[in-house]
Write a structure and sequence with these properties.
By secondary structure, the protein is mostly helical. The chain folds into two domains: 5-205, no CATH class; 225-289, no CATH class. Helix content is 72%, strand content 0%. α2 (30-52) crosses α5 (103-113) and α5 (103-113) runs antiparallel to α6 (119-135). It is globular.
Length: 292
C-alpha cells in the first residue's frame, strides 16, 4: 500500500457519502441526511489524520481494527471455536498494534498540524450535535418525539435538521480532504482548500437550528401558561434565597428527572436548580388553589 492509501480510501468514501447526502436532501430525508453527514465528517477526520501521522502506523492501526471487527462479527457464528481471524493475524507475525484513537483525539491531532484548524470545528459543531440529537438514541433525540407542554407523542421528531447546511458541510469536508491529499502529492490544491473552508463557513450549525425550532414550537404552550408565570417567578425567588435547597435523594421521581435533564446536556447543579424551581412552582399553585 502507498503512503496515502488510507487517505485515498477515506476520500472515496467521502465522495460516495457526499453524493448520498445530496440525494437524501432532495428527498427531504432529514434524519438520514444527519447520519450521512456524520459519516462524511468521520471519514474526513480520519483521512486528514492519516495524512499527518506515520502511514505505516496508521495502516497497522486500521488493519488491527478491521481484524477485531471481523472477529466480533464472526463470533456469533463460530461460538466457542477458536477465532481463525485472530489466529491468522498472530500466525503472520504482525505486531500487536493499538487501534485507532477516538475521534476527538483525531480532531485535536488534525488541528495541531493544520492551518486554519478545522478538526474541532467539525467535531464539536457538527459531529457531536448530530450524534446527540439525531443519530444516536439519547435523551435529547428521544425528547424530540414528545410535544412541548402536552407531553404527547409525535409522529415526526421535533426540530428541523438543516438540509442545506449539512449538504454544504459534506461538500466542505470532501473538498478539504481532496485538497490536503493533493497538497501531499504536490498537486495544486488552493481551489479545493478555499472551496472547503468557504462551504464550512456557509454551513448552518445543526444545534442552533434545532434549538430555534424547539423555541418557536414552545411559544403556544408558553402563551397558554402565562397565568402561571407569577408562581414560577416566586418559586425562582425562593430557590435563589435558599441556595442550599436540594431535592431529596430518596425521591425516585426527583432523581429520575434530574438524571434526564443531565442526559440532555445540563450540568448536575443546573438540573437540580430547575427541578427545585419546578417543585416550588407546583407547591405555589397548589397553595393558591386551596385558598378560600
Amino acid at each position: 500500500m502507498g503512503p496515502h492509501a488510507t487517505a485515498e480510501l477515506c476520500l472515496r468514501r467521502a465522495l460516495t457519502l457526499q453524493r448520498e447526502a445530496r440525494r437524501t436532501s432532495l428527498l427531504r430525508q432529514r434524519e438520514a441526511l444527519a447520519s450521512v453527514c456524520r459519516s462524511t465528517i468521520e471519514a474526513t477526520l480520519i483521512g486528514l489524520y492519516s495524512l499527518e501521522a506515520d502511514p505505516d502506523d496508521v495502516s497497522l492501526r486500521v488493519a488491527r481494527g478491521a481484524v477485531k471487527s471481523a472477529s466480533r462479527l464472526s463470533k456469533p457464528w463460530l461460538g466457542e471455536v477458536d477465532d481463525p481471524i485472530l489466529g491468522l493475524w498472530e500466525s503472520l507475525g504482525l505486531p500487536d498494534s493499538r487501534g485507532m484513537p477516538n475521534l476527538s483525539q483525531i480532531a485535536d491531532r488534525v488541528d495541531a498540524v493544520g492551518d486554519p484548524p478545522v478538526g474541532r470545528l467539525l467535531y464539536w459543531e457538527f459531529y457531536v450535535p448530530l450524534c446527540e440529537t439525531a443519530v444516536h438514541t439519547t435523551g435529547a433525540s428521544l425528547a424530540r418525539y414528545r410535544s412541548v407542554g402536552s407531553n404527547a407523542l409525535r409522529r415526526r421528531p421535533l426540530g428541523a435538521i438543516p438540509r442545506q447546511g449539512l449538504v454544504r458541510a459534506a461538500d466542505g469536508c470532501t473538498a478539504l480532504l481532496a485538497g490536503h491529499l493533493a497538497e501531499a502529492r504536490g498537486i495544486p490544491s488552493a481551489w479545493f482548500l478555499a472551496y472547503g473552508h468557504r462551504q464550512l463557513k456557509r454551513a448552518n450549525r445543526p444545534y442552533p437550528i434545532l434549538l430555534l425550532t424547539f423555541t418557536l414550537s414552545s411559544i403556544p404552550w408558553l402563551l397558554s401558561n402565562l397565568r402561571q408565570l407569577p408562581a414560577w417567578a416566586r418559586a425562582v425567588v425562593r430557590v435563589l434565597a435558599n441556595r442550599r435547597m436540594r431535592p431529596p435523594q430518596d425521591d425516585e421521581r426527583a432523581v429520575s428527572t434530574i438524571d434526564d435533564l443531565a442526559a440532555i446536556g445540563l450540568s448536575r447543579p443546573s438540573a437540580e436548580f430547575l427541578y427545585s424551581v419546578w417543585t416550588e412552582a407546583q407547591a405555589s399553585l397548589r397553595d393558591r388553589s386551596t385558598l378560600p
